[in-house]
UniProtKB/TrEMBL annotation, chain A:
Keyword set, alphabetical order: Cell membrane, Membrane, Transmembrane, Transmembrane helix, Transport
Protein topology in the membrane: Multi-pass membrane protein
A family per Pfam: BPD_transp_1
Protein name as it appears in the record: Phosphonate ABC transporter permease
GO cellular component, one term: plasma membrane
SUPFAM superfamilies registered for this protein in UniProt: MetI-like
Segments crossing the lipid bilayer: 12-30, 74-95, 107-130, 180-201, 208-229, 235-256
Originating species: Bradyrhizobium macuxiense
Domain ABC transmembrane type-1 as annotated: residue spans: 70-253
Any GO BP: transmembrane transport
Lineage: Bacteria, Pseudomonadati, Pseudomonadota, Alphaproteobacteria, Hyphomicrobiales
Predominant location category: membrane
Coiled-coil stretches noted in the UniProt entry, renumbered to this chain: none
Recorded family membership: Belongs to the binding-protein-dependent transport system permease family.
Record's subcellular location: Cell membrane
Automatic annotation (TrEMBL), chain B:
UniProt keyword Transport present: yes
Name recorded for this polypeptide: Phosphonate ABC transporter ATP-binding protein
Gene Ontology molecular function terms on file: ABC-type phosphonate transporter activity; ATP binding; ATP hydrolysis activity
GO cellular component, as recorded: membrane
């Protein structure tokens, strides 16, 4: 018998890698992609980047403009995330097994979160562009809906994980639902929730740049404009500033996390 | 089954013909009946899965019974509306194996949680406690030997200290009964001894009835006035510790190999 299991494992593995190889070959064939040329061009890209893609003196004169756009992008991300967090907290209270009042509402809340979470950010931006065209609001709402789904899920898991035992104890003392939430659930889960919020702000600042390309706003749009008009030095300055910002934000949120957790 | 009445007063708690079916296969509780008087210290023993935790939670209706009745101070607990149920629960303390504290809050904050059931929703929600409540909490904390940890966060305490916070939280309710679900199962022998002795002391001094789920038969023998043996959801023994012979213990634990060896109290 054990010998059969080993043989079956080996066959399964062969089948899996065979299928993967066929899929890869098929994709390359259909799209006329030349993998050899693809890899050799990476080297050329580096050479080109080193000779064109760095900020020069002229690019530095654009620094204030770019900084302003970057500030817009950051503020929009922070606003979208914090507003989403407030709604996520309410949705999580309804959806969590520990704090829900009613199983049906709980299921509805979790279903909403699940649907929101499973629509990719870029799809949100495209859908919302139909309604609000290219605008700051479109970017804001795309980040808001994406974050709402993710944060609701994260908050529900946090509540269920860290407060279920204390909630049981307070229910047994006859405490009211509001008391339980304010005295047990929030004190236990708030630090973890803030940690999720910081993570989401971090992610959203990265994604906001990409969404800006689509919605024509913020620092993503600056990049698009400079790049398409062959102002590569300016475009590289945009990239550099984004990278520095993201590193700073990440360091800041790590610092806050160390303090609160 | 021996049904004895050594009650030092009218029954405080009456459990009659309680059934609990979680999913319709085998009932977790099967026709459980007993009553408990004021100040009694009752140990509930039995193999794991026997229904001890379920039984305890049916008393304060953390779990709804499928059939039968629980009467507390003459009031049928299953008939109560939400508000009256909270009132009953505020007179019943509960202590847990995993302490069930809000670990990030301080000792005093956790102890004061025991008052929430007796407060208005608003002052409870805002965590506003009267001077009297704070003084009472402080006294209990000192009595339990935690005076120097009053303002310490509970996640900094040892298991034994956490359980003492749990006891203080139950006592500050000024309860008639305390339900203890395996209060010493996560503790080392020394901490277990301290906890059991403190429970015994408060039961005596404050005339609080205790129902304590235990899996150590020797602990039950040493501290309790009365032992309930539960097996497969049924009470198979109800008597004084002195009546619990090795044969009865074997009966309670079935023919399981995992039946604990008994060290008689020295
Ligand atoms: N929430 C639940 N849902 C379904 N079955 C449960 C639940 N809780 C306990 N049970 C079952 O009820 C029986 C008694 O469990 P429990 O009261 O926890 O026993 P004990 O505390 O004596 O170990 C067990 O068979 C257990 O699997
Ligand atoms: Mg149990």
């Amino acid at each position: 018998m054990p010998a059969d299991i080993f043989a079956k494992r080996r066959n399964d593995r062969l089948l899996f890698f065979g299928a993967l190889a066929a899929l890869t070959a098929g994709s390359i064939f259909i799209t006329n992609y030349d993998p050899v040329a693809g890899f050799t061009s990476i080297g050329k890209a580096f050479v080109w980047g080193a000779s064109n893609f760095y900020p020069n003196a002229r690019a530095l004169t654009k620094l204030p403009d770019i900084a302003l756009k970057l500030r817009d992008t950051i503020l929009m991300s922070v606003a979208a995330t914090t507003v989403a967090a407030i709604f996520a907290l309410m949705l999580a209270m309804v959806g969590s097994r520990t704090t829900r009042i009613n199983a049906v509402f709980g299921a509805i809340a979790r279903a909403i979160a699940s649907v929101l979470r499973n629509i990719p950010l870029v799809a949100w931006a495209m859908i919302l562009m139909l309604a609000f065209s290219q605008s700051q609001l479109t970017g804001f709402l795309a980040l808001f809906f994406g974050s709402l789904g993710f944060l609701t899920r994260a908050f529900i898991e946090t509540i269920d994980e860290v407060s279920i035992h204390a909630v049981e104890a307070l229910q047994a003392t006859g405490a009211s639902h509001t008391s339980i939430i304010l005295q047990a659930v929030l004190p236990s889960s708030l630090p973890q929730m803030i940690s999720w919020l910081l993570f989401m702000i971090d992610t959203n600042i990265r994604d906001a740049t990409l969404v800006g390309l689509l919605t024509g706003t913020g620092v993503g749009f600056s990049f698009d404009v400079y790049y398409k008009s062959f102002h590569f030095h300016e475009a590289s300055l945009v990239v550099l500033m984004i990278v520095i910002t993201i590193i700073c934000i990440e360091m800041m949120s790590n610092y806050i996390r160390r303090i609160i957790l | 089954m021996t049904q004895i009445s050594q009650l030092p007063g009218a029954p405080l708690l009456e459990v009659s013909h309680v059934m609990k079916n979680y999913d319709g296969t085998r009932p977790a509780l099967d026709d459980i009946s007993f009553s408990i008087g004021k100040g009694e210290f009752v140990a509930v023993i039995g193999p794991s899965g026997a229904g001890k935790s379920t039984l305890l939670r049916c008393i304060n209706r953390m779990i709804d019974v499928s059939d039968g009745e629980v009467r507390f101070e003459g009031v049928s607990v299953s008939q109560l509306n939400r508000r009256d149920l909270k009132k009953v629960r505020s007179k019943i303390g509960m202590i847990f194996q995993h302490y069930n504290l809000v670990e990030r809050l301080t000792v005093i904050e956790n102890v004061l949680h025991g008052r929430l059931g007796s407060k208005s929703t608003l002052s409870g929600a805002l965590g506003r406690y009267s001077r009297d409540e704070k003084r009472q909490a402080m006294e209990l904390i000192s009595m339990l030997g935690l005076a120097e940890h009053v303002y310490q966060r509970c996640d900094r305490l040892s298991g034994g200290q956490k359980q003492r916070v749990g006891i203080a939280r139950a006592l500050v309710q000024d309860p008639k009964v305390i339900l203890c679900d395996e209060p010493i199962a996560s503790l080392d022998p020394n901490a277990s001894k301290v906890i059991m002795e403190q429970l015994k002391r408060f039961s005596n001094e404050m005339h609080i009835s205790l129902i304590v789920n235990l899996h150590q038969v020797d602990v039950a023998l040493r501290y309790s006035d009365r032992i309930l043996g539960v097996n497969k959801g049924r009470i198979v023994f109800d008597g004084r510790p002195s009546e619990l012979s090795p044969e009865r213990i074997a009966e309670i634990y079935g023919t399981e190999l995992s039946a604990p060896r008994v060290r008689y109290a020295s």
